[in-house]
Fold these 3 entries.
Entry 1:
Amino acid sequence: MYNSKDDLQRVLITEEQIQDRVKQIAQQINKDYQKENNPCFVGILKGAFIFLADLTRHLTIKHSVDFLSISSYGKSGAVSDTVRLIMDLRDPIEGRNVVIVEDILDSGKTLEYLYKILEQRKPASLKTCVLVKKTRDSVSFPIDYLGFEIPDVWVVGYGLDYAESYRTLPYIAELKEEIYRPG
Ligand code: IMP
Ligand code: MG
């Protein structure tokens, strides 16, 4: 893991903007799930670990967290089109109110895949919470809680990586094109 600021084009979402928005989303969830019984927040590893940590620390409702890990990456760090389940949830979700917490929606394939496999387990409800969504015409997957919309560029920081680097930056920044499209 390393974070070289020289590789960044510009900051798209500041630390303060992220923190404010995450708090707002948590407050909305607190309201929406007031009467629901013990919802489970499923963080998608690895990208969502920081978002999930911040989000759940603003929750005042009783809840639990669980994780699953998927791989949608090609060799170098860019998105490929096959999604594989690497690590499953620890606990069953049948009859639970479940919220999928994901870092970013690009083509929507990952969320679509996850939604499908979790839906088959018959949760009482299944919602999606995504921090950033790339604005692309081809993308449409229903998101219940969305942080930000961003242009279609490669972004890093706040959990998002390129080839495992830059995850711990406190803001979300556009990576220089020469880094993710070398040559
Ligand atoms: P999708 O399946 O095309 O929606 O891709 C979503 C997954 O690709 C996310 O879970 C991320 O892991 C990864 N991804 C897509 N775009 C970016 C990006 O700009 N930065 C970092 N990861 C990304
Ligand atoms: Mg991811």
Note: The radius of gyration is 16 Å.
Entry 2:
Amino acid sequence: MRNRVCVKRFLIVAAAGLLLFSAGCKTPSSNIADRKEPEPGEKIEWSERELLMADFLLYNVDCASSADSFADGEWAGLCQTVPDMPYGEDPGSHKTWGYRKSDYLVPETDSLGKGNTVTKWTVDRDTETEIKTTEILYDFEVPEGTYNVYLGFYNPFSVRKVDVDCEGNNVIAGEKILRYQTNELSFETEVTDGELNLKIYNPEGRNFMDTPILSYVKIAITPEYTIELLSAAVEAMTVENPEVRYTAESSKAYSENLEKAKELLSGKGSNGTNSIKLKFENLRGSFKMLTEKYRYDSFHPGAVWRDTENTPIQAHGGQVQQLEIPDSKTGKLVTKWVWVGEDKTNGYRGGVCAYSSDDLYNWQYEGIIMRNVASRSALETSDYFREVYAGYSSEELDNVALALNADRAVIERPKLIYNEKNKQYVLWFHADGPTETSDSNYAAACAGVAVSDSPFGPYRFVGRYRLNTCPADQEDKYPQSKGMARDMNLFKDTDGTAYIIYSSEENLTLYISKLNDDFTYLATDPAKAVYGKDFIRLFPGAQREAPALFLKDGKYYLMTSGCTGWAPNQARYYVSDSVLGEWVNKGDPCIGDDSHTTFESQSTCIFLEPESNTWIYMGDRWFADTLNDSRYIWLPIVFKENGDMEISFVSEWKLR
Ligand code: DGJ
């Protein structure tokens, strides 16, 4: 009876891998009753494959569970057929194991727990037993051998301490069980007498908050690292085309480890125990970590939306459009959906991300297409920036460092437009940040432009500009700062003319201004621009932002929001017979939006999915304190016979 103690504590974050293990292999308990019974002290009788399939677990006890079978995704150890039981003979395996009953031990359920931490043993609050003598006892019949024991504690109360004795020896003393976490403690022990004995207690316990708790017990045979084991592992853990079903990162690690294990088996390299152990554990670990890709076949407005690598999509304040782009592998032109938006991975400030898709449900990450810049010097020291900004003068680089500064610049609402004449992709965005005279994040109030020859960049910043100003014969709502440009969008008309639509005059008035043929600046410089021909002002004083302009059946529609920071407000849309024409207020298109918050979202783009003829409203549900977790609200738009727009909320929907 010797214990080799190695206490580990960690927060369980990767339970999915373990569940996958059981999903990949059949639950081993099904035919357990047919097995030959070993005598106490007899050697381990399971085959390598059986052990592998059970992940070496002889017991996988879900403490205090009253279920008589294992839930989906949970699996029994080789010696058990029920999740938990009082000490006695297992009904299926006929092994003797279980918890020792006592008058103070009570089951408890944790609504915050998951899987095997939903139920746990705890001590009755009203027990008259002296607290420091309360204990949780488990005994397990096992063959002679070395075992890894894992004890799980989900603690919804204050930090408490725990001691563990195994085989009569203290193996864990005064370990802290942290609050609101799954704490796992593990150690290795040898068993020579046919029974593994565990005692969980707190000798310093003074009150109820100090009493022992226990959510799960796992007892695993320490593997014997032999060639046979590695060979069985390669056979049991071979997955065809893992990259199709699993994320690129997890399938790459798995494939590499499988390859290395096969190399060893084919006689390459050392086949000493340590090499076998390394290859085996790497294969086993990466097999468990294979992570299935999310596949969507519907929209789930407001839910976390993951890309094809399972990472939440970062494309806020964005735009979706269909583009003919070169295929990344073949270079041939293919039609794809392209989504560009703000990268809020690190919060408020970030660059611009892009994603591509064939079906609008599943999005492949295409990277940060326009990066922000940590410092002026980074433009000259980083290979990436040196290449992107090759040929820029020192003064131009100063401008890049100012407009894309990672600590100061604000880059919002990026929108992409393809310029056929120049075969160039042009990215416009709300380029803001403090100025020499103001520390406000929205002092610059400019429109920024960046260009690239390829849809997914890298985009190089060209400039940021103030735009058109209120003509002298009209009432400027904010004369103290001319030509402001904040929330913006782009629109290309049927004749190829492109426009920028943006909030100006301190967000009090929307403007629509014509772009030049390159789409990189205004058609006419503000000093010479002619009102009605080069630009128009819309709804002076109405305070509208988040514009989204589109053309349907010869009518132009302009969706907008009010201006309330990150908080949602009531939408309003307008219609017109031409872009620079008369726009008529049509009110709020939302139906059943009782809180008048556009279903807790703010518009950013409206586009047509041509195959199903579905117009899609794209909005952002901003979470001001956790901007990176802000959600996307995509909803189908219904057009009435008279052309009026209606948007209703649906929590899940599909294209027809
Ligand atoms: C509302 C705008 O629409 C957003 O893009 C962002 O600028 C927030 N205001 C900041 O409060």
Note: The first helix runs from residue 15 to 24.
Entry 3:
Amino acid sequence: MSDRIIGAIEAGGTKMVCAIGHENGEVLDRASFPTLAPAETVPAMIDYFADKNIEALGLAAFGPVAVNPADPRYGRILNTPKIAWQNYDFMGDLVRGCGVPVGIDTDVNGACLGELTFGAAKGLTDVIYITVGTGIGVGVCIGGQMLHGMLHPEAGHVLIERAPGDDVPSTCHCHTRCLEGIAAGPAVQLRLGENNNVLSADPEVLEQEAGYLAQGLMTYILAYSPQRIILGGGVPDHTPELLPLVRTKTLELLNGYLSTPELEDIDSYIVAPSLDGNQGVMGALELGRRALEAAQK
Ligand code: ZN
């Protein structure tokens, strides 16, 4: 283990967290910049890294983002509602501005990589990380590599079955009954109504939310066969009752179809994040480390 300094960016819709650290995940310094237009925000970030002697940089970005090196749009933010960022060559500008190798992935793949390398999934190779917040994102790691394919997984948009009588509109502009549209934070808020913003305080909505998330998890378990599932994001983080309910309902839905030691130990199979909110930044550090390793080959 050397003491090389790696840069990390967790690029979110409202703020950019920039940090430097060692490749063992130790974060040495961090700063936060509001997400404005690229012309304002990116020079400020490049400036932050200018005197930090970084040898590589990892970028975990809001998506959709082109993460496949064979894609001519590689490193660009794609069709985001944030107009100023559409088609923006985020990685290219960082490579030119910082003069170091840059590794890029989605924010949720970054969080998954953080937990895989340093946290709740350390030592495993096939893991998914779900974040339930303003949207639902799913990071997927298969055989120790983040899953990309033609783009990257968008598994928050799998279709689910609504509970009888649930006619609350979907908050997804493309789908009337995808998981994100029915179970992300804004949809939960619609169900809770104006006078309550605490999911724990409404047992009926809580139960329904757990059932919806369990439908998503069942699909991910069947399709990706993960060794562990990490359930993070604002909704589960603020609702301690949710995780046990999701475990129970996921097993109910699977209904004995799969029999594995992992599922028999469900409390160790579906778990909370373990890195105190640092999984994104630490995953970006690992993205940077991997970019440096690739550049030195
Ligand atoms: Zn959708």
Note: The chain has eleven helices and ten strands.
